[in-house]
C-alpha cells in the first residue's frame, strides 16, 4: 500500500503534515469548551441509554480519537447523542435488565456490530443506502424521538419510577405513579430545567451587560449546563437532600476507560442485527448532515464513504472501551466549530480532557442529582422538536406528508425502530405507487417552434391521423401493463388514427417486462393497421433496445427528435399537411 | 343498488341476457371435454397439496360456479392448479400433519383468507399490486416451481416415502430411501409418464391417420390422460397389484361437496396470512395472464379488478365446500377455449359434470394407482419449465437476470414462499438502486435543429460559459444528494461557467427532499456567482414547484424549451454568439 492509498483511508496523514501553531491554539481552545460541555451531556446520555454514567464518558474518549484519525470532517465531535442513546435503550431493554452485566455487554455488542456495519458500508462504498431515508422522514423521526426522550425523563424530574418504549406507555406509567412524586426532586428538576432554558436565551445577553466581550460571553454561556450541575450538586451535598429521597449519581469508578469485549454469541448478535443497522443508518445520516453543513461554511468537502469508515472505527472503539453506540452530535459539533476548531486534533484534545475528568473528577459528581441530568436532556432534545415539516410537506407534497406523519405516529406510538422502519417503507412504497401509474400526456407542436407540449396545457398543433403520447416515467415492471392499457383504451376511442408515436424523452429505462409490453403493443397495433413509432429515445435506452429484437419488429421508425417525426409523418398524410389542426389549450 | 351497478359487479347479468342456443351447444361440448380432463387432474393436484383426492373435485365445483357469476373472462376455467397446490402444501405442512383434520381445516382457512384478500383487493381496486411481480420473476418462479413439483412426485413413481420443501431436501430424501423402490410401482409410473408424454405429441397424428377429422382427433387427444387412468386402474384391479405394494387411491367418499367451515382461530390466521397473500397474488397473476391471452384472441376485455372479485368469490366458495385455494388454470382454460366455450356457463356445466363424477364415479377409482396421478402431474408441470428467460434477461438486462436467477435459486433451495418474496424484493431493490444513481447527460444543440442531445454521443454546439445538464430521472429522496454532488463536482472542475441550466424533460416528479436539494444548489451556485435556470419543466412538476418558494428564490429563469434558454443565454454572452463552439462527438 503506497502512502497515497493509505492516506485516502486515513485523512490524518493529509492534514497532519501541515499542522501548525495557529491550528493548535484554535483546536486547544475548542477542546476546553467542548470538554466542559460534554461532561454533563455524556453522563446524561448514558443514563438515557440505561447505562451507568461513566459509560457516557468512556464512549466519548476512544471514539473521538479514532474518528480524528479516519474521519474527514474537521469539526465533527463524535460521542453519545440523544437519539442513538434512546435507540440503544429501546434495542437492549427487551434483551436484558437495566443495570445488569448482560445489559452493558449488549450495549458493547451493539456498538461493535454497528461499527462493523458502518465500516463495511464504507469499504464497499454503500453510503448511498442512507439516501433512502428521505429528508422529511428524518425530520419527522427526530421530532418524534425528541418528544419520546423528553417524556422518558419526566420520571426523574418527578422522582418516581416509570417505564415504557412508547409515548402512551410512558405517560400511562407516569400518571399511575404520580402519587409517589418527591417534591424536593421536583423542585430541583424544575429549577434546573428553567435555568437551562434561560441559559440558552438570557445568559449571553446578561454576560454582555456585565461587560464581557461578545466572544468570551458566547464561550461562558456554552458552559451554562455546568453551572446547573455545580449548583444542584452543592445544594444536595450542603443540605443532604439525598436523605430526603433525591436520587443522586452516587459512586462512579475513577479511572481511564477499561478494556472491554463485546459478545460474540450468535443469539445475541441475531437479536441486535436489525437495531444495529437502524442505529448505524440513523447515526450516519445525523452525523453526515452536521458534517456537511459545517464543511460547506469553510468550503471543505466531506467524503461520505470515508465518513462511514470514521464512524465505524469510532463505534468499534466504543465496543472495546466500555462505551456504547456513538455518532457525530449536532450541538457539540457546532460548539466545536464556533469555538475555532481547525482540525480533528481538537477532538483528540477533547478526549484528553474527558480522560482527565474520568480519572479525577468522578468523586465530585457523587452528589449530582439525577434530576439535573434529566433537565439537561429535556432542554437539549426539545430543541430538536420541530413540527414545521408537517406543514411544509402538507403544502408541497401529500405523499411526503403521509410518510412524515406515519413516521411520527409510529415512533411515538410503537417505538423508534418501528417508526423509522415505517417511514422508510412508506416513502419507498408511495414512490413506487406513483411511478406505477405514470403521468401520460398527449402532445402537439407549439406553433413557430420545434417544441412539443401537452395538448391540454398549451396551444399546440395536432393531426387527426397521428397520436403522439409522451410517457412521463421510465418503463419498468410496475407500470408496463398501465401503458398497454392506456394505448389500447386511447385507440379504441378514436378510429382515425393511423400512426402512434411514443415520445420517449422522459423514459430513462425500459426493463424486460416493459420491453415485452412494447412488443405486445407493437404487435397489437400492427394487427389494427396502426404503425408504431418512437421518438427522442435516449442513448442508454437505445443501446438497450439494440440488444433485443424489438427494433426489427417495430412497424414504424425511431426518430431522433419528435419534430423529425412530425415533419415526416404529417407530410405523408397529404390531405392534412400543411394545415394541421389547432387545438385550443384546455 | 341499480341494475347497472349490480351488473358491474356481476357480469353474468350482462352475458346472461343474450344467452342463446348456439352459445349453449358450444358451452356444453366444452364442458364435457374439460370435465373428462379435470377428473384425473383434480385428484392429482389435491394429492400434490397433501389433501385427500376428493378435495380436488370439491375445489372444482363451487368455485367454478361462483367464478361464472362474478368473473369477466369467458373462457377461464377455475380450480386447483399445480403451483398453488404446491404453495398450499408448503404453507400448511409446517402447521399440521398431512392427513390430519387440522391439515384439511388449515387448507379451508387458507382458501378463505385468500378469498377475502382477493375480494378486498378487487373492491378497493388494488389489482395494480400484482404488477410488482415482474414478468421475468414470474417466469423464473413458474419454472422453478415446476421443477420442485416434478421432484416432489418422483417418490410416488418409485413407490418410496420422501419429504422436503426444497430441491436439495427432496433429492436427498429420495436418494436415502431409494433402496425401498417398489419395482411394480416404478413400472406403472414410468409407463404412464411415457404414455402421457407420447399423448401430447403423437396421439393426435395417430388418430388422424386412423381416419378421425382434425377436430374430433383434437378432442379425443385431450382425453389422453383418462386412458392412462383407465388402463392403469384396470391393470391394478386385474392383477391385484395393490397386494404387490402398489399404492392406490382407495376409498373416496361418494357424494356432493360437503358444507365445511374454515377456522377463525386468530393464531392459525396469523400463521397463514403471509402464505395466503402470496398464493393470492401468484394465483391472480397466473389467472389474469391466461384470461387476457384468451380474451385478446376474441377482442374481449378483462377487467382486472373484477377478476379479483371473481377469484375471491371462488376461493371463499372453496373454503365452505371442502376445497382449498384455487385459481384460473392455464391448460384447462385453453382446452375450454379451444373446445368452443362461449360464456362462463361452460364452467357451470363443467361443475355439474364434476358433481356427477363426485356422486357416481368415485368407487371406480378405488384401484387407481397413485403413480399414475404423479405421472399426470409430472407431465403437466414439466411443460411449465422454460429456462429461456435466463438467456433473454441475460442478454437484455442484467438486473432482470439477477432477479430471475435469484427467484429460481431461492425457490429451489429455500422453498416457494422465500423464492417469490426474494424475486419481488430484489426487483424492487434493483430498480431503486438504478434510480438512485441516475444517468446525467451534458447536452448541446444539434446544428440546424432546436433539439439538444448528449455532447458525448452527438455532434452538437455548446458554449463555454453555459452548462446544460439533463437529468434522466425523477428527482426524489433516493437521488437528491446525487444531483447535488454532481453539480458541485462539475462546477469545481470548470471555472468559466456563469450559467447552469437543468433541462427537466425527464423529470416527472420532484419530492420534498429533492426540492430541498434544488434549493441548496440554487443557494450555493448563487454564492459562487453562477445563475441557475430550469428548462422544459413539465406541467405537473411546475404545478408542484409553484406551491413552494423555490421559484421566487431561483436566481435564473424557467424556460419553456431548452432552445429558448439557449437563444436567450448564449446571445447574452456577446463574445460567443453567434459563433458557438462545436464539440466533436466522442
Automatic annotation (TrEMBL), chains A, B:
What PROSITE patterns does the record point to?
Answer: STAS
Location of this chain's protein in the cell: Membrane
- TM segment ranges: 28-49, 55-70, 77-96, 102-124, 136-158, 178-199, 220-239, 268-296, 308-326, 346-366, 373-390, 402-430
- Listed Pfam families: STAS, Sulfate_transp
Name the domain of life this protein comes from. Bacteria
- UniProt keyword list: Membrane, Transmembrane, Transmembrane helix
- Provide GO CC annotations from the record: membrane
Membrane-topology annotation of the record: Multi-pass membrane protein
One GO biological process from the UniProt record?
A: transmembrane transport
InterPro entries (alphabetical): SLC26A/SulP_dom, SLC26A/SulP_fam, STAS_dom, STAS_dom_sf
Q: Predominant location of this chain?
A: membrane
Q: Which residues form the STAS domain?
A: 456-569
In its UniProt entry, what is this protein called? Answer: Sulfate permease
SUPFAM superfamilies, per database record: SpoIIaa-like
**Which species expresses this protein natively?**
Ensifer oleiphilus
Keyword Membrane recorded: yes
Query: Which CDD domains does the UniProt record give?
Result: STAS_SulP_like_sulfate_transporter (cd07042)
Amino acid at each position: 500500500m503506497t502512502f497515497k492509498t493509505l492516506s485516502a483511508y486515513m485523512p490524518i496523514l493529509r492534514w497532519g503534515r501541515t499542522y501548525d501553531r495557529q491550528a493548535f491554539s484554535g483546536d486547544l481552545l475548542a477542546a476546553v469548551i467542548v470538554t466542559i460541555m460534554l461532561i454533563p451531556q455524556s453522563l446524561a446520555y448514558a443514563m438515557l441509554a440505561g447505562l451507568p454514567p461513566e459509560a457516557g464518558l468512556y464512549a466519548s474518549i476512544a471514539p473521538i480519537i479514532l474518528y480524528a484519525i479516519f474521519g474527514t470532517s474537521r469539526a465533527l465531535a463524535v460521542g453519545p447523542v440523544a437519539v442513538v442513546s434512546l435507540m440503544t435503550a429501546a434495542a437492549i431493554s427487551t434483551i436484558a435488565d437495566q443495570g445488569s452485566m448482560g445489559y452493558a455487554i449488549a450495549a458493547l455488542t451493539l456498538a461493535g456490530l454497528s461499527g462493523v456495519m458502518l465500516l463495511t458500508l464504507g469499504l464497499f462504498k454503500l453510503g448511498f443506502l442512507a439516501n433512502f431515508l428521505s429528508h422529511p422522514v428524518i425530520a419527522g423521526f427526530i421530532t418524534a424521538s425528541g418528544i419520546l426522550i423528553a417524556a422518558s425523563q419526566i420520571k426523574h424530574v418527578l422522582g418516581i419510577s416509570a417505564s415504557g418504549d412508547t409515548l402512551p406507555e410512558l405517560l400511562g406509567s407516569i400518571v399511575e405513579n404520580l402519587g409517589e412524586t418527591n417534591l424536593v426532586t421536583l423542585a430541583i428538576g424544575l429549577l434546573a430545567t428553567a435555568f437551562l432554558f434561560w441559559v440558552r436565551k438570557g445568559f449571553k445577553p446578561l454576560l454582555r451587560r456585565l461587560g464581557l466581550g461578545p466572544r468570551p460571553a458566547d464561550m461562558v454561556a456554552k458552559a451554562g449546563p455546568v453551572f446547573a450541575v455545580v449548583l444542584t450538586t452543592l445544594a444536595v451535598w450542603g443540605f443532604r437532600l439525598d436523605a430526603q429521597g433525591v436520587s443522586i449519581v452516587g459512586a462512579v469508578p475513577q479511572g481511564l476507560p477499561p478494556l472491554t469485549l463485546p459478545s460474540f454469541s450468535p443469539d445475541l448478535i441475531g437479536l441486535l442485527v436489525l437495531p444495529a443497522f437502524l442505529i448505524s443508518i440513523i447515526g450516519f445520516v445525523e452525523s453526515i448532515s452536521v458534517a456537511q453543513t459545517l464543511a460547506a461554511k469553510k468550503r471543505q468537502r466531506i467524503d461520505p464513504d470515508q465518513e462511514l469508515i470514521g464512524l465505524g472505527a469510532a463505534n468499534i472503539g466504543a465496543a472495546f472501551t466500555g462505551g456504547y453506540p456513538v455518532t457525530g452530535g449536532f450541538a457539540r459539533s457546532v460548539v466545536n466549530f464556533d469555538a475555532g476548531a481547525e482540525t480533528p486534533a481538537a477532538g483528540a484534545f477533547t478526549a484528553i480532557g474527558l480522560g482527565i475528568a474520568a480519572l479525577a473528577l468522578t468523586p465530585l459528581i457523587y452528589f449530582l442529582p439525577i434530576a439535573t441530568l434529566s433537565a439537561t436532556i429535556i432542554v437539549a432534545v426539545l430543541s430538536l422538536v420541530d413540527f414545521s415539516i408537517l406543514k411544509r410537506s402538507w403544502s408541497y407534497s401529500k405523499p411526503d406528508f403521509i410518510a412524515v406523519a406515519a413516521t411520527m405516529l409510529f415512533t411515538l406510538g410503537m417505538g423508534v425502530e418501528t417508526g423509522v422502519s415505517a417511514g422508510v417503507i412508506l416513502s419507498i412504497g408511495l414512490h413506487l405507487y406513483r411511478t406505477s401509474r405514470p403521468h401520460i400526456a398527449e402532445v402537439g407542436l407549439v406553433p413557430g417552434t420545434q417544441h412539443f407540449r401537452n395538448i391540454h396545457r398549451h396551444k399546440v398543433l395536432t393531426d387527426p391521423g397521428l397520436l403522439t403520447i409522451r410517457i412521463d416515467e421510465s418503463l419498468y415492471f410496475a407500470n408496463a401493463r398501465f401503458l398497454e392499457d392506456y394505448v389500447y383504451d386511447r385507440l379504441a376511442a378514436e378510429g382515425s388514427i393511423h400512426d402512434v408515436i411514443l415520445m420517449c424523452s422522459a423514459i430513462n429505462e425500459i426493463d424486460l417486462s416493459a420491453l415485452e409490453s412494447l412488443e405486445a403493443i407493437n404487435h397489437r397495433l400492427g394487427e389494427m393497421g396502426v404503425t408504431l413509432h418512437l421518438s427522442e429515445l435516449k442513448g442508454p435506452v437505445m443501446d438497450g433496445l439494440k440488444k433485443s429484437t424489438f427494433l426489427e419488429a417495430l412497424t414504424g421508425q425511431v426518430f431522433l427528435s419528435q419534430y423529425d417525426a412530425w415533419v415526416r409523418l404529417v407530410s405523408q398524410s397529404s390531405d392534412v399537411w400543411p394545415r394541421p389542426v389547432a387545438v385550443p389549450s384546455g
